[in-house]
Amino acid sequence: MRIALFATCLADTMFPQAAQATVTILERLGHEVVFPQGQACCGQMHANTGYFKQAAAIVENHVKTFEPVLDGEWDAVVVPSGSCAGAARHEQRLVAEHVGDSALVKRVDALSPYTYDISEFLIDVLGLEDVGAYFPHTVTYHPTCHSMRVARVGDRPYRLLRAVEGLTLIDLPDENVCCGFGGTFSIKNSDTSTAMVADKAANVMSTGAEVLCTGDYSCLMNIGGALSRVNSGVRVMHLAEILASTKEAPFEGHVSFQPSNDQVRL
Amino acid sequence: MTQTSQTFLGMPAASPEEQPHTGGWRTNVEVPQDTLRWGHTFPEGAHKTLANTQMRRNLGHATRTIRNKRQLRVDEMPDWEDLREAAEAVKFEVASRLPELLEQFEANVTAHGGIVHWARDAAEANRIVADIIKSKGIDDVVKVKSMATQETNLNEYLADEGITAHETDLAEMIVQLADDMPSHIVVPAIHRNRSEVRGIFLDRMGDAPEDLSDKPEELAGAARAHLRRKFLHASVAISGTNMGIAETGTVSIFESEGNGRMCLTLPDTLITLMGIEKLVPRYQDAEIFAQLLPRSATGERMNPYTSMWTGVTPGDGPQEFHLILMDNGRTKVLTDPIGRQALACIRCGSCMNICPVYQHTGGHAYGSVYPGPIGSILTPQLTQGLADDDPVHTLPFASSLCGACAEVCPVKIDIPTILIHLRARSVDVKRRLVPDMWDVAMNAATPVMSNGKAWLAATEGVKATRLIGRDGRIGALPFPASLWTRSRDLPVAPKESLRQWWKRTHPEGITPARSGLGAAQSTATKENR
């Protein structure tokens, strides 16, 4: 298949490893990946902060960039983020309705069925649970609120992780509870967000897992930031990074929150 | 207890009125003038309550217990989702037909000997209640726990008029004795543990046994003896209602303790204050809510006491029944096609029990008698306080939008969507002439995020973070970034952005096709559409 990658603004700038891993998996499975250059952001941050007028311009750009999928230019749009997949299905429509742009509502409605979170694409479209990955580590998975309740990816990430050779999946206590990120919530209600992420980090550490995995780098930025602050020794990884790893080629993308020799020092 | 005024290790001795209360309880909220708008913003309230470790311990334990019980009782229902959908449909019908249903309800209450009053706002409702009580020549009444009377601050109003209203629900009584405010709509004293309750009883109840322990049965026994005396002397009772039935003029109370039943049957006069949205059209509709409410609220299959009454019955129960139908902002809520779903709320509190924000901050942080997720959408709508100079406008932002509340709501209120909608309304009515931090940030990001080329340029700029990074992460930064870095590190941007990586690895723009497989599948899929 010919697949358009929506990298997401966060992966594009801060966590390219999630998008790189997505490309790696899809190519390994024999598909063509395209990176539409006009892409930027899905508009979720603006929408969830109440800036609908501004969000509408961002949604417009997103729709314009990925609309060629409707003409058969590509077969699907794949995104390594349950949160952004959820925004394509929910927030984008809210925004278009709120600003009274009925044409944009229609375009959003037309595009969203072609937009898949990577876990949905692998299982629902490609019909795969075992993608040939090898990852000999203990992993605990946080399902992330928007993946669970907006994009509704269900147990797909768990099914994919369980099929990874060598991987030991450890249950995360209170996995369904929010990590306290919530986009600008983490700034506007910094005290409360801190209390929430403290609980999440404590639960992660209680598992003794080497790696915390989610399908969303926004939550990983939040939980990873808290884990890093206490030097917990837990690595954060996107689901795609784990699925991209094989015996022959362990995935070696950028590692966030990790000391590295080539960093610029103060 | 003897107290000397010596100073020990620099700690000043407690002044006499601050001597430790038994059990260590403290009331750290004042009863506000406006119960829907206490005056502080959510972040201010949360900052204060998050520091109360005892409250957080009590709340975490209590919400977890109720949450688990609810889940147990919901899981055993084969038709739970059907019931939720039925309830949603009934409440949608009520919102669509509210004026005619209210008239039908009024006619049926009147036909059965009840007296119906209409109150536009809280002040009018309170005045009507006080006038009825005064006409009986008494200054002492009993009350069934009621959110409607919390909303109007009735007890405070009556006190100013020289009338004492005794709360008879155990938790509500604890709150009242402690000069506190409720922290939850179903479990008002959820923020207290039993040792604090013992302290409140010993300090404030007057007739508590001196050897009272903190065993739940002893506390309940003390409360029962205390309340019995109130019930047997009261000639007027005040209640709210869980549901009014338009078709028959019936009013109902769902409760656990039986204190409500005492208030509803012993006194000669009963005054019921009801928000105009608490209607259902048909008697049969009660069946749906009688199943949803107890399981959602307290995790019980059925609440121990369900009282329903229609007007007055000669020789049985109160012989005078006043029903006050109160608007207090509800018709304004009804004009918002998205926000009005909040009126479907049956006040079960399940959204609070599941909400991680509520669980950490408690109800007082919300600065309204309606806390938690439902309060975050109800309060700003009832008050129309969405402008940024109104503390209430911070409530729709007091959520991480995790969506757990919508998942448990028995009437399927889409709370996260309404939160986002109210945030947008709030941004639309900003009154600042000078843009604030958020206006600046959001406006600056828009042209960049809505244009691929501008975005590409901006992504290069992100690498500036590498200059301040240390070992791949960023620690303390000045305001406003400190709001993040006070508790979390930020990663520094990677050396190679995704676009640079793509350009390096995919010079042709797309993945070189490795086999005919991709193209073949592609064609097949297109044909399938």
How would you describe this structure to a colleague?
The complex is a heterodimer of chains A (266) and B (529). Chain A has 266 residues and is α/β, with parallel strands linked by helices. Chain A has helices at 9-13, 16-28, 44-48, 52-66, 82-89, 91-98, 102-111, 118-125, 145-149, 156-162, 185-188, 190-207, 217-229, 239-244, and strands spanning 2-5, 32-34, 76-79, 115-117, 138-141, 168-170, 211-214, 235-238. A four-stranded parallel beta sheet of chain A has the order 2-1-3-4, sandwiched between helices. In chain A, α12 packs across α13. The longest helix of chain A has 18 residues, at 190-207. The model of chain A has no long low-confidence stretch (mean pLDDT 95). With 529 residues, chain B is α/β, with parallel strands linked by helices. Helix content of chain B is 46%, strand content 10%. Chain B contains 24 helices and twelve strands. Chain B has helices at residues 42-49, 53-75, 80-96, 98-111, 122-135, 147-152, 154-160, 170-177, 194-205, 216-233, 259-265, 286-297, 330-334, 350-354, 356-361, 372-383, 404-408, 415-428, 437-449, 452-462, 465-468, 482-485, 498-505, 517-528; strands at residues 115-119, 140-143, 164-167, 236-239, 243-245, 250-255, 269-275, 279-280, 305-310, 320-326, 473-474, 490-491. In chain B, the strands form three sheets. Chain B has a six-stranded parallel beta sheet with strand order 1-10-7-4-2-3, with helices on both faces. Chain B has a four-stranded mixed beta sheet with strand order 8-5-6-9, sandwiched between helices. Chain B has a two-stranded antiparallel ribbon with strand order 11-12. In chain B, a hairpin with a 4-residue loop joins β5 and β6 (250-255). Chain B is globular. Chains A and B meet through α1, α2, β2, α3 and α4 of A and α1, α15, α17, α18 and α19 of B.
